[in-house]
Amino acid sequence: MNKRIIDWRTAGWLAVLIIASPQAQADGLFSIKSENDAYVGAGDGHYTNGFEMSWAYETDTDHWSHAIAHTVPGWKPDDVVGMSYRVGHRIYTPTRITLSTPQPEDRPYAGVLYAGTSIHGVSRHDGWHETRSLHLDAGIVGPSAQAEWIQETFHEHIAGADPQGWDYQLSDEPFLNLGYEHAWVDRRELGPLEFEYGPTAGFSLGNLYTYGSGGLAMRIGKGLDRSFGIPSIAPAEGQRAFFRRSEGLGWYVFAAAEGRYMAHNLLLDGNTGKDGPSVERTPWVADAQVGFAVNWDRWQLAYTVAVRSKEFDSQNGTDSFGSLTLSMWL
Length: 330
Known about the structure:
By secondary structure, the chain is mainly β. It has a single domain (3-329), classed as Beta Barrel (Lipocalin). It is built from four helices and 14 strands. Strands 1-2-3-4-5-6-7-8-11-12-13-14 form a twelve-stranded antiparallel barrel. The chain has a two-stranded antiparallel ribbon with strand order 9-10.
């Protein structure tokens, strides 16, 4: 049997198991997220495509996630508000995908297939609140992620450029990553609108990414108390755009900036302990995001535009891509 059919049947069954898990039998929030450089008019290159399905739900006070949260300094078990599960795929390529020869000055071809889970919490104070998320992701980088087949098939259907360099992609390497995010959020009333803002901090540890991050996020709109944070973008794990069902229309626009010190990035540094494609990683990387989200009853649609600074020394300029997330309570 064709290997790629086996791989994608495995990924499909993994998605089914997540959605069919006992926790998912309760009311849950199902989300589909698509990230692509074409959403902002950019051509193929670097982080060119991502797709993720996630399932989030609110937890009871006796849920096992509360005991895990208790091990995190400053996180009270009663502050846990929910959990989420996800499966996803990402594609990374050099800028010139029609070249069939190695491109040592551009980022390597790589596919990433992963599954993960997150615990989410909110600590409320007098006039402000904190949000916390703990993430665990596992997956594989390399040919088994089937990025070559996905990109070639998609480009064939849209009459796009035929990628020629996948023979030089990163080799198969499994990964495990632990991540944590923390935000301090103040709220103000601006006439009929609500305004939230505050700093963020986080880290990721693992053989896919290792970094520390800090930033600032803000959003303004109506019905902000229904929702939890702003949409996340890669390399951040998890889905922060959680919202509660409510009658009437809620909306917000948002902006965020984040800096990361990248101590390790498998997708740029190359396979662990092996000779192969790699580039000289830039330690300091910055992201800027703007976007909006609209929710009504059990639906939410969010759109994000992201601009990212250079990730490696030989990179020419910044990268940009867009993200669309459709969420529905089931």
